[in-house]
Amino acid sequence: MTVASQTSVPDRHTFYAGKSQPSSTSSGSFQSVDPSTAKPVCTIHTSSPSSIDAAISAARAAFPTWSSTPPIERSRILLKAVSLLRARNDELAKIETLDTGKAFSETSTVDIVTGADVLEYFANLIASGGLNGESFRLRDSAWVYTSKEPLGVCAGIGAWNYPIQIALWKSAPCLAAGNTMVYKPSEVTPLHAQFLAQIYKEAGVPDGTFNVVYGAGDVGGYLTKHPGIAKVSFTGQVATGRKVAGSAAGEMKYVTMELGGKSPVIVLPDADVDQAADGALLANFFSSGQVCTNGTRVFVPEKLKAAFEKKVLEKMAFVKAGDLADPTTNFGPLVSKVHHEKVLGYIRRGIENDRATLLCGGPEKPENLPTHLQNGFWVKPTVFTDCTDDMEIVKEEIFGPVMSVLTYRSIEEVVQRANNTDLGLAAGVFGTDINECHRVIKQLEAGITWINTWGESPAEMAVGGWKQSGVGVENGRRGLEAWLRNKSTLVEMGGAVPTVFAKL
């Protein structure tokens, strides 16, 4: 039995003021598609400009009440939402699998779980003084105190690879800080948004505090330019992020940008080859390679190349495509037809133009797919070796299950090559000398780094990219600060107002 056959999703409309609000039919619609079968799931009605205006107005109307609610009370409401998310984990995971094409074995253990963790973290943070300011004595007769104030109505623009997790990464600190939000999910994976809105409502979040609009880039652009929006938080590709950031900054809005990467995995000369191969597979084939932090440039010492490739080939047997509801399936299709064609194009260019050695995989569908999945957006997990830095598959973000293996001779060389990119989202090293691991990590130009592991981003860990990979951070204590503005007050208690205009 497939996930799709167990799940029914009604058509979606703009959600604001606590309920679904049908848009004008003239605004258009689009289909949500199951990537594993290429069959439509439901119709999503595009939010018209008037519907977006109404959603922003609802958020503005809710802001005074929500922002003035004591942090401890906001915390209790958000913790109830955490409880609802966890109670409905499997139900929501089926929606994520239907929408993204990720295996249920992944969505049921990662997507909702990690999103709920972040909401719980921020709810507990504001309950334990996370919104407290500071105070200090300036001089005998004066002191200064600061306060952390919410921004107002904020826009969250989500990505398609981790829909509900990203929605929670944005809405959790936003709401915890006392802001309200208008959220636009990716048009490729929009199904989660109303489910999350309904959970917030059921938990006691006031109507209008979390609202949902639907559509493509034009809807996101309308939100970004809207004078009623105080901040834009965007997750997506670099080219789009530049446009969003430029537009928002031109209107003097706050921004957080989490963008793409072309991250290096460095296998040090003393590394355990078996563990390094495990790390490389995790860094390339989890979520079918559709992760912004994926370590797609795998640097291996020349002397370890043969052993490393042997281990990778052995372990590829455990990357299993198939029925997404099967608990043994751990590799799904790509998210859409357009993205499928893009990734296939890169694989073909790797073979035909770059002339890299195809170690395994290729542009074909995985073998032994069930009949009902043959029309889905499937591709084999692919490994290229004998790669060089100037190859297209090495330089450009593919966002699919494509690993490039490169060799190096010295640490100084590999650090320089790893940093030779405009992107700086993530990086990692594998080695047994932990001091050497730290020394190499310190030299890598990336905002998220790992040693002897890959990919984990707990709620307590602030994450964000360097260079063209982003602006600001999400999660951790600094992640809350990104949704607040500072107010400083100086209090004079000396009984006299200092002035240069006193009588001489």
Which keywords apply here?
504 residues; alpha/beta; Aldehyde Dehydrogenase, Chain A, domain 1; Aldehyde Dehydrogenase, Chain A, domain 2; 2 domains; six-stranded mixed beta sheet; globular; Ald_DH_CS_CYS
What features would you describe in this structure?
This protein is α/β, with parallel strands linked by helices and 504 residues long. The protein folds into 2 domains: 3-259, Aldehyde Dehydrogenase, Chain A, domain 1 (3-Layer(aba) Sandwich); 264-451, Aldehyde Dehydrogenase, Chain A, domain 2 (3-Layer(aba) Sandwich), CATH 3.40.309.10. Helices cover 38% and strands 20% of the residues. It contains 16 helices and 22 strands. The strands form 6 sheets. A 7-stranded mixed beta sheet has the order 14-15-16-13-12-18-19, sandwiched between helices. β3 and β4 form a beta hairpin. The model has no long low-confidence stretch (mean pLDDT 96). Belongs to the aldehyde dehydrogenase family.
Quick recap:
Residues 26-488 form the Aldehyde dehydrogenase domain. By secondary structure, this protein is of the alpha/beta class. The chain has helices at 3-6, 49-68, 71-87, 89-100, 104-127, 163-176, 192-203, 217-225, 238-250, 273-285, 305-315, 337-352, 392-395, 411-418, 434-443, 476-481, and strands spanning 15-16, 19-20, 29-34, 39-45, 135-139, 142-150, 153-157, 180-184, 210-212, 231-235, 254-258, 264-267, 297-301, 357-360, 382-385, 402-408, 423-424, 426-430, 448-451, 466-467, 470-471, 484-492.
